[in-house]
Every structure is written in structure tokens, then in C-alpha cells.
Amino acid sequence: MKTLVCYSRENIKIKDTDIPVVGRDEVLIRTILCGLCGSDIVKIISPDVKKPVRLGHEVAGVVEKIGPEVNKTGNVIKKNDIVVVSHHIPCYSCIYCDHGNYSMCRHFKETNLDPQGFSEYIRLSGEHIRYNTFVVEDNKNIKNVIFTEPTACCLRAVNRIDIKENDNIMVVGCGTIGIIFISLFKLLYNTKVIAIDINSNKLKYAKKFGADLTINSKRENIKEKISEFSSSGADVVELTVTTPQTIGIAMDSVRPGGYIQIFAGPSTQQEISINFEHLYKKELTIFSSYSATPEALKESFYFLKDYSLDFSSLISEILPIEQFKKGLDLALSQKAFKILYYFDKSLIKYI
User: Fold this and answer.
1) Following DSSP, what letter does each residue of 117-139 receive, concatenated?
2) Residues 137 and 204 in one domain
3) Which of 29, 112, 166, 226 is the most exposed place for a label (fewest CB within 10 A)?
4) Treating both helix axes as pointing N-terminal to C-terminal, what angle do 244-253 and 222-229 enclose, rounded to 10 degrees?
């Protein structure tokens, strides 16, 4: 089978590897689509990430083989079912899980798709089938439910913030993740959303998906624009891009007593300075949110399944896996939103 292998930014190859053997409580799926995530891009370009590296976790596939014990534990999954799947699963019994820090769980970090999302075939463990696999009943919906995992990451982040209706929320960075955040804030809390980016096209999409105010931080004075919108500043700042510049924007824009949530880490292990007197005297809360949970995945899948959220228009390209570098270059150029890949053209019939 075809498997993408990344040795470096310049050395990404498709290798022929063995199809995984399915165990008694496992399932084999054939990949229909796999999305390129920002975290995949960081793994590819960062010198701090050891290579070769596993890539891909936003997957839709068709069930090829089912182990004899799969449906004995309450699962209902059949051959030829279309499914969306995700990679990490908490143990629900360690100190981190007991405190709701599921993404810190050792089991969470160790579980993954076998061998990875960017593979022609993927083996799903019994745990993955129970917690992270969702059957798609309408094939026409695949291009929307493929956003289940990134939406779940954002949903978990949103649920960790003390948000009130009509709060002023600033979203810094309006790529795919920023758009998902804007949509969730509007859907769940009817907040007022301020969208910040340096890309005019992305700001147009932010407006389309519900942003009340858009600011091009390259051309406009953020403080002046926000003061016209809110006298106190942003109640919450959501950082989907973390750089010294965006941290500065957040610190200057958040109201006293407000929240700054860091959703994306720097692309390298750089240190970023924060004015601690400013942090202390404004009583700010700064915290991060990393990855999703099975609960957030399930809720996100149903939001997407019934089109309460519709992100299908964010798909910029659907490319054969052989053109992986083309999609990567598009993503790095900031000219695209979501890039999807397929391994077998015959499976495009499902979308």
C-alpha cells in the first residue's frame, strides 16, 4: 500500500508498505480522504521534530475488513461503511484524566492510527472503534464531516473558557482553525467576534462565517478599531497563531480580568517574553488548549453531520497523494485553507 514518509521538508516520499493485519477486535479502513493539519506542517518544517515522522489524522475512509469480535462490545459497524476517525484516546483513569487534562494522559499521547493518516489503509484498534470512529450515513456529507477532528480540538478549547453571551471575543489568525473558532463562538454563545489577520482574503472568509469586526493588523490600528467596537477591550483573546507579535496583540487588546487562550504553539522552541507586571496588575488568565477528546469529537461530528456547522467551502484543493508537496506549498503560502488528499481516484465516487 502507499504510505507517505517524511524525512525532511525537502525529502517527502511515497513508499510501498505492507497492509496492516487486522486483529479480532480491529477494523481495516481504506482511506478516502486525509486532511493536512497545521500540526502536520509544523512536524514537517520544524528542525526540533525527529524524522521520519508520523503524519495525518483527519481521516475519512471505507471499512474493508472487520475483526470477528468488533461488534460484540456494542459497536455497530459494517463492511463498506463510510467512517471518519481520529487518533488519540485517553485512558480515563490516570491523574490527568481525573482532573480533565485528557490530552496530558500518557495513553492519549501513545495511541494513534496505524500506521498513520496519510496511508492507503489504516488499522483501527478496538479503542479507536469505540471512541473515535463515526459512521457517515450520507456520502455527500464527507467533505463536511472530514472537519470533525479540527472542530473537536476547537470545541474542547471553547468549552474550557468562561464565556458569557454577548462577550467580545478576539480571534487572532483566520485560517481554517480561526474560522472554526469564529463559527463555534457564534453558534454556542452568540458572542461578538473580532477577527485579526494580515491576509485580506482570510478576513473576507472570517466575515462570511460571522465575524462582527475584521481588522487587517498590517494596515489598520488594532487599538483604534477595537475602541470603536468595545470600550473595555476583548473579554477573550483566542490565539491560533503564536508569535511575539500576536502575544503582544493579545496583551494589549484583552480587558482587565480577561482570558488569553493559546491554541497553537510556536513553530520552533522559541522563548516569548511577557510583561509580568502587566499580567499581574490586569489579573489576566493565560492558558493553553491542546487537542480534542472523544466527547468533543462526538459532539463535533453531529454539528457537522446535520450542518449546524458547514466548513466544506474551506476546502481549497483535493489532490492525489503524489502531489503532497504541491498542497504543502499552497498551505505554506497562506493562499489556501484546507488541503485534502486521496490515495485512490476510484474512491472519489464517495464524495
Assistant:
1) SSBSEEEE-HHHHHHSEEEES-G
2) no
3) 166
4) 30
Residues 101 and 62 in one domain: yes
DSSP conformation letters of 75-108: ----TT-EEEE------SSSHHHHTT-GGG-HHH
Residue 59 main-chain phi, psi, to 5 deg: -120, 135
Q: In the chain, which ranges are E strands?
A: 2-6, 12-16, 27-35, 58-66, 82-85, 121-124, 133-136, 168-172, 192-197, 213-216, 234-239, 254-262, 285-288, 315-320, 338-342
Burial class (CB in 10 A: 0-12, 13-18, 19+), 6: buried
Peptide bond into 320 cis (omega under 30): no
At 26, which amino acid appears? E
Query: Mean per-residue pLDDT for 224-244?
Result: 94
Q: Answer yes or no: do 92 and 32 share one domain.
A: yes
Domain with 44 in it: what CATH number? Answer: 3.90.180.10
Cβ(239)–Cβ(216) below 8 Å? no
Residues 31 and 146 placed together within one structural domain of the fold: yes
CA 122 to the chain's CA centroid = 20
Out of 288, 313, 338, a domain closes at 288
Average pLDDT over residues 314-318: 98
Report the number of distinct structural domains present in the chain.
Answer: 2
Same domain for 206 and 118: no
Q: In this predicted model, what pLDDT tens digit does every residue of 82-130 receive, in sequence order?
A: 999 999 999 999 999 999 999 999 999 999 999 999 999 999 999 999 9
Whether residue 13 is found in the same domain as residue 85: yes
Return the SS3 of 201: helix
Cell digits of residue 170: 478576539
> What are the residues whose beta carbons fall under 8 Å from the beta carbon of 272, sequence distance 6 or more?
242, 243, 244, 247, 266
| pLDDT value of residue 348 | 86
- pLDDT tens column, 328-344: 999 999 889 999 999 99
